[in-house]
Amino acid sequence: MIARRILYVDASFNNITEESKISLYDKDIGKLDTLILSKPTNSSEAEKYGIVYACLYSQINDMNGQKVHILNDNSGAVQNNKILDICKNFNLTLSWIPREINEIADKGTKLANNIKEHDIKVLELFYDLMINKCSFNKIPIFIKEDTDEIPEIDKIKNILKNAIRHSKLKDNTLVSIGEVGKYLIKNNPTYTYPSLKKELEKYLNDFQIINNNFVKIV
């Protein structure tokens, strides 16, 4: 089975200093990268820089043999067509998560820079080539406007998928519904439901219930 690697990414923009802070948390090794950039001009662009940095990070750290999944709490960046195209070309996947689950990466945006200036320059150059110069051939002509809004039904499905991914054992495809519930209570207390099993059954195209006690992502 291909090993799974989760990269949490967050970013912030300071209107006074006109600087952005990007943070990447590599959960598997407990590594937190923090970068200070001058190129992004707003928070949405800073979030996109963060995701692009995760793509570079996966290559620099030779993760080609792993299934790398990037998590970010800005829906506009996660849904951006150019960003999705870059991730696809690097064979990476990308998902939105609620801000409260991105706590460690969020804290990283408040810390000092710990990345070499050379690596920051590489990121800025790569971003400029891939986003501003549209280097990939399959970039759509019409790009959807960035938005921080995401449909409520998609928010719920993303919350459930994230809980399932973090509740299952590494080599298992199934996870106990009870364990998923425990994860939600601990990590996403703002999300409430009368019955987790009934909630999962609302999305039969996304989740499969096994023997009434287990669930897997379709």
In words, what does this structure look like?
This protein folds into 2 domains: 129 residues, Nucleotidyltransferase, domain 5, CATH 3.30.420; 66 residues, Nucleotidyltransferase, domain 5 (2-Layer Sandwich). Helices cover 40% and strands 21% of the residues. It contains 8 helices and 8 strands, in the order βββαβααβαααβααββ. A hairpin with a 4-residue loop joins β1 and β2. The longest helix has 18 residues. The relative contact order is 0.13.
How does CATH name the architecture of the largest domain?
2-Layer Sandwich
Oligomer: single chain
Rg for CA atoms: 18 Å
Instruction: Enumerate how many helices there are, as a single number.
Output: 8
Going by helix content, strand content and strand pairing, the class is alpha/beta
- The run of helices and strands is EEEHEHHEHHHEHHEE
| CATH fold description of the largest domain | Nucleotidyltransferase, domain 5
CATH superfamily of the largest domain: Ribonuclease H-like superfamily/Ribonuclease H
Strand content: 15-25%
Mean pLDDT: 84
Biggest pleated-sheet summary: 5 strands, mixed
| Total count of domains | 2
Helix content: 25-40%
Strand and helix map with partners:
Layout: E1 4-14, E2 19-26, E3 31-37, H1 43-60, E4 67-72, H2 75-79, H3 81-89, E5 93-96, H4 103-108, H5 117-132, H6 152-167, E6 175-176, H7 177-187, H8 196-201, E7 207-210, E8 214-217
Parallel strand pairs: 1-4, 4-5
Antiparallel strand pairs: 1-2, 2-3, 6-8, 7-8
Helix pairs in contact: 1-5, 6-7
